Prior knowledge:
The protein is of the alpha+beta class. It is built from two helices and nine strands; from the N terminus they run E-H-E-E-E-E-H-E-E-E-E. The protein has a six-stranded mixed sheet with strand order 4-5-2-3-9-8. Strands 1-6-7 form a three-stranded mixed sheet.
Amino acid sequence: MITLSQAAIAEIRRLQTKRQQQQARLRLGVKPGGCADLYYTLEFDDAVGASDRVYDCQGVAVVVDEASIKHLTTLTLDYSEDLMGGGFRFYNPNAIETCGCGNSFRVKT
């Protein structure tokens, strides 16, 4: 299960409206690279593949590909703003290490 905070939901809906893509799904994934082995990806997507999992998070559709799901189970996605600007924050109990940037992480292998 993936959880979105109220702030993340509000920001996703704001971005959907701004891009005139109110029905677009949020695709959340993981790719190799970054400073701690893996990094998170976020994008809007209209397509859902046969092996994708779709989660309904309080009206926001979140799509996760099969390869990424093992790293994202129980992830909480938040959004916050500070003096440096706003951004999504990933809280992943599967990560044994995270980079200072907050977008790269390592899992136990």
